[in-house]
Amino acid sequence: MLFLSITGFYPGHVQDDTLQFELDIDGSEMNEKVAQLIESKPLSELEPGELLLREDQVAALGALLDVSFPSGLEYFMGTCAKY
Predict the structure, then answer these.
(1) Burial environment of residue 30 by CB neighbours within 10 A (0 to 12, 13 to 18, 19 or more)
(2) Which of 6, 64, 65, 80 has the most CB atoms within 10 Å of its CB?
(3) SS3 state at 66
(4) Which is nearest to 6 in space by CA: 26, 14, 16?
(5) Distance CA 5, CA 29 (A)
(6) What angle do CA 45, 48, 54 make, to 5 degrees?
(7) How confident is the model over 63-74, as pLDDT tens digits?
(8) Predicted structure pTM score
(9) Closest listed residue to residue 59, CA positions, set 38, 33, 83
(10) What total number of domains does the chain contain?
């Protein structure tokens, strides 16, 4: 089963490249909503890999997911699989 994960790291100019934020999206319905919001396509059609999220996308995700994303990070969204 595919699901989406959102990760946050300090920007590239900061010497700390450790993971600072991680959120796995639960539930097939919410994963589909997030896929439509960010990529305008179903989850099953998303390409593998991670996508750098823009600030407006992070704000929209925060509203949809009711999550407060820490400021000062670069956020990425990627597909993952549960077996």
Answers:
(1) middle
(2) 6
(3) coil
(4) 26
(5) 14
(6) 90
(7) 999 999 999 999
(8) 0.91
(9) 38
(10) 1
Integer Cα distance of 37 and 53 in angstroms = 12
Digit-coded pLDDT (tens) for 8-41: 999 987 788 899 999 999 999 999 999 999 999 9
Question: What Å distances lie between residue 40 and 16, 35, 36, 68, 83, CA to CA?
Answer: 33, 6, 4, 23, 26
Strand order in the sheet with 50-52: 21-24, 2-9, 74-81, 50-52
Give the integer Cα–Cα distance in Å for 75 and 57: 10
7 to each of 31, 39, 76, how far by Cα in Å? 15, 17, 5
**Residue 44 confidence (pLDDT):** 93
Q: Which domain holds residue 58?
A: 2-81
Tell me, what CATH number does 21's domain have?
3.10.50.20
